Amino acid sequence: MMYVVDVSLSATLSGHQNPIFAIAPGVQASTIFTAGNDKGVVEWDLSTGKFKRILCAVPASVYALYLLPDTGILVIGMRNGEVWCVDVERQELLHKLKTEKGAVFAVRSLPEKRELIAIGEEGVAYVWSLDNFELLYRFRVSPTTVRTIEPYAGANQLVFGDKDGYIYLYDVADFKAIEKRKVHDMPVTALATSEIHLYSGGRDAKLYQLAKKDLATIQDLTPHMFTVYSILPHPNFPVLATVSRDKSIKIWDMASLSLLKNISIDRGYDTHRLSINTGIWHNNQLITAGDDKLVKIWDVAINAAT
């Protein structure tokens, strides 16, 4: 089935003084968090389209925000190698976790094992218990920087993407390597999954649709002129969005990778004027942010083609 996608700009949120690198959903349905080169994590109220509060001050640039599912805890990964766990309601720092060196670029949870995993500049993964936040495992994934982690939903595997263009498939149970494959000619900058496929984006401006079990290429294309910074599967429809350093947002059919919508200045949209670094879906809204210090809220209507 093909879909028709209509997009309109709902709001532009301003207030950041520096580039934005990370977005996460809020504990309340109408809120989100953003962070980047500013010295604080910002909470926004989407119902009013306005700044809500500074959740917390931070000592370094923030590259990763992750709301722990079914909790009120926001996890913050920073340039200085620290991983903070903050109680959103009480605005309280609960745990300050630390990697050995380098920036933390990606954070995810493994709910089945009640574990938190982070990785970054040194290419080493750190796994902490979600029960007491003690370090359980530390293992090297890559000899170079790893910018992205993606656990397989409902499965016991996860993938990492590194600076040399390699993707690594690991078993979650014992963190043993299953597969390693060079996919991109440049760094892997985005990973996402569907029930069937793994999707990978890179600094080579390529988007790959891969087999989840062995990372074999099924199809690929060049969706943008520059780096693909995020791949965002829609929560309800079989479509995905990509955002890029080329300042455009594109929406694709998840199966065929056919282009459904090009959201760019050239197409008449009031989109970002500089690199788009991150995005999330919030129900039927797409939220994007980047180097222009702005957060854009897009209303996205998806209907079956007649």
Automatic annotation (TrEMBL):
<keyword id="KW-0677">Repeat</keyword>
<protein>
    <submittedName>
        <fullName>WD40 repeat domain-containing protein</fullName>
    </submittedName>
</protein>
<dbReference type="InterPro" id="IPR015943">
    <property type="entry name" value="WD40/YVTN_repeat-like_dom_sf"/>
</dbReference>
<feature type="repeat" description="WD">
    <location>
        <begin position="269"/>
        <end position="306"/>
    </location>
</feature>
<dbReference type="Pfam" id="PF00400">
    <property type="entry name" value="WD40"/>
</dbReference>
<dbReference type="InterPro" id="IPR020472">
    <property type="entry name" value="WD40_PAC1"/>
</dbReference>
<dbReference type="InterPro" id="IPR001680">
    <property type="entry name" value="WD40_rpt"/>
</dbReference>
<feature type="repeat" description="WD">
    <location>
        <begin position="13"/>
        <end position="54"/>
    </location>
</feature>
<feature type="repeat" description="WD">
    <location>
        <begin position="221"/>
        <end position="262"/>
    </location>
</feature>
<dbReference type="InterPro" id="IPR019775">
    <property type="entry name" value="WD40_repeat_CS"/>
</dbReference>
<dbReference type="InterPro" id="IPR036322">
    <property type="entry name" value="WD40_repeat_dom_sf"/>
</dbReference>
<keyword id="KW-0853">WD repeat</keyword>
